[in-house]
Amino acid sequence: MAAFSKDINQGELSHHLARSLGFSTSPTATFHSPSSSNYGVSAASRTAASAAAKHLKPFATEDIKILLLENINQTGRDILAEQGYQVESLKTSLPEDELIEKIRDVHVIGIRSKTKLTARVLKEARNLIVIGCFCIGTNQVDLQYAADHGIAVFNSPFSNSRSVAELVIGEIIALARQLGDRSNEMHNGTWNKVSSKCWEIRGKTLGIIGYGHIGSQLSVLAEAMGMSVIYYDVVNLMAMGTARQVPTLEALLRGSDFVSLHVPELPETRNMIGQQQFEQMKHGSYLINASRGSVVDIPALIQAMRTGKIAGAALDVYPNEPAGNGDYFTDDLNPWCTELRSLKNVILTPHIGGSTEEAQRAIGIEVGQALVRYVNEGTTLGAVNLPEVNLRSLTMDQPNHARVIFIHQNIPGVLRKVNEILADHNVDKQMTDSRGDVAYLMADISDVDTATIKDLYERLESLSSRIMTRILY
């Protein structure tokens, strides 16, 4: 369906964070990635962009410390390391108590889907200013707590769409031809050449629940293979090709030979496919879930497959998933694992929908860029929990300028007090926006020195509405 605590401790002025000519602080500039020519720009254009933009640095902070968990792709690590940040990268997620110890002093944390950034964890993150989710989902982060404490959260809502869509196409064919069962039989030494209940997918109907980035790409691929496509979404969306939107979930289930789920994890999507929905599906139809594990009632699916109502299923996500690789897909994880594993024509994969080299590289670039823009410029474009605010870059022709970022409670009278503090200075440009109870203000002021910056910082910090103050210069 249609992706605090104090910002920084007082201390010495830090050195320039942006050391590499391969980076421009302009939010519209393209980053250079040595790992993929698809995202690179020429050396001449990179150098020109860097020369035009002023590299900003934070006032009153230690060197920026970054913690990356869950084996973030090298492209993302390179983008962050090239800025001169202190980057620590680990291959796994961490247990909550260990994570709390690690997160206490970091300014930036990058995670994937396994790490849980709960309120308990974030409460201990004294210096944290931004979270990068190197994946589509953000449900592993307490977004409201992060917003209330001025911590921006970024994700990558588009980069792995093609990888997931291709996996689903492969699973549709594999289920229709019972490839999983035939392969297992051959591995066990059994030759079992059959054609009963094996089908071409040409001429069959694919029903897509959730016609967003992945669902629409899947639609195009399925049509190219001769399938008819119908889709259901809570909003009206333009169809790709000859696909057709249907008005109700029941209409989709009754009309589809294959049903593929592409919805977010929300209260209204929890167990949205259960016993009643299986009864509405065609006899002998197939179900694919590469969205979220909470969307399908697995015991109901098991029962529907035992009766023959559902002829096959492919699951890439589960209500409870292990924190790391190993022999963990057992009844201790989910009480029905043994039953599910015993069924015929069921494809079980360990949440690998977006696990391709191309997708992980693209995610690394997209989220890495967003983190650098936020740290260096305060730009919140693409943030999922804060207002989206952006100002054009300061340039080398503006040497005595500073960028003031004031994240505050969205209550009456705050802007008047902030502007009284800024009134003695020349404000070149200013923008503010709010989202719920949190507001985000950016202002560029000219003709300042370090003493002025220190005074501004302390006066803004003293306001009772303050959530977080950052000054970049």
From TrEMBL:
<keyword id="KW-0718">Serine biosynthesis</keyword>
<dbReference type="InterPro" id="IPR036291">
    <property type="entry name" value="NAD(P)-bd_dom_sf"/>
</dbReference>
<dbReference type="InterPro" id="IPR006139">
    <property type="entry name" value="D-isomer_2_OHA_DH_cat_dom"/>
</dbReference>
<dbReference type="GO" id="GO:0004617">
    <property type="term" value="F:phosphoglycerate dehydrogenase activity"/>
</dbReference>
<dbReference type="Pfam" id="PF00389">
    <property type="entry name" value="2-Hacid_dh"/>
</dbReference>
<dbReference type="Pfam" id="PF02826">
    <property type="entry name" value="2-Hacid_dh_C"/>
</dbReference>
<feature type="domain" description="ACT">
    <location>
        <begin position="403"/>
        <end position="473"/>
    </location>
</feature>
<dbReference type="GO" id="GO:0006564">
    <property type="term" value="P:L-serine biosynthetic process"/>
</dbReference>
<dbReference type="InterPro" id="IPR029753">
    <property type="entry name" value="D-isomer_DH_CS"/>
</dbReference>
<dbReference type="InterPro" id="IPR006140">
    <property type="entry name" value="D-isomer_DH_NAD-bd"/>
</dbReference>
<keyword id="KW-0520">NAD</keyword>
<keyword id="KW-0028">Amino-acid biosynthesis</keyword>
<dbReference type="GO" id="GO:0051287">
    <property type="term" value="F:NAD binding"/>
</dbReference>
<dbReference type="InterPro" id="IPR002912">
    <property type="entry name" value="ACT_dom"/>
</dbReference>
<comment type="function">
    <text>Catalyzes the reversible oxidation of 3-phospho-D-glycerate to 3-phosphonooxypyruvate, the first step of the phosphorylated L-serine biosynthesis pathway. Also catalyzes the reversible oxidation of 2-hydroxyglutarate to 2-oxoglutarate.</text>
</comment>
<dbReference type="GO" id="GO:0061759">
    <property type="term" value="F:2-oxoglutarate reductase activity"/>
</dbReference>
<dbReference type="InterPro" id="IPR050857">
    <property type="entry name" value="D-2-hydroxyacid_DH"/>
</dbReference>
<protein>
    <recommendedName>
        <fullName>2-oxoglutarate reductase</fullName>
        <ecNumber>1.1.1.399</ecNumber>
        <ecNumber>1.1.1.95</ecNumber>
    </recommendedName>
</protein>
<dbReference type="InterPro" id="IPR045865">
    <property type="entry name" value="ACT-like_dom_sf"/>
</dbReference>
<keyword id="KW-0597">Phosphoprotein</keyword>
<comment type="pathway">
    <text>Amino-acid biosynthesis; L-serine biosynthesis; L-serine from 3-phospho-D-glycerate: step 1/3.</text>
</comment>
<comment type="similarity">
    <text>Belongs to the D-isomer specific 2-hydroxyacid dehydrogenase family.</text>
</comment>
<dbReference type="InterPro" id="IPR029752">
    <property type="entry name" value="D-isomer_DH_CS1"/>
</dbReference>
<keyword id="KW-0560">Oxidoreductase</keyword>
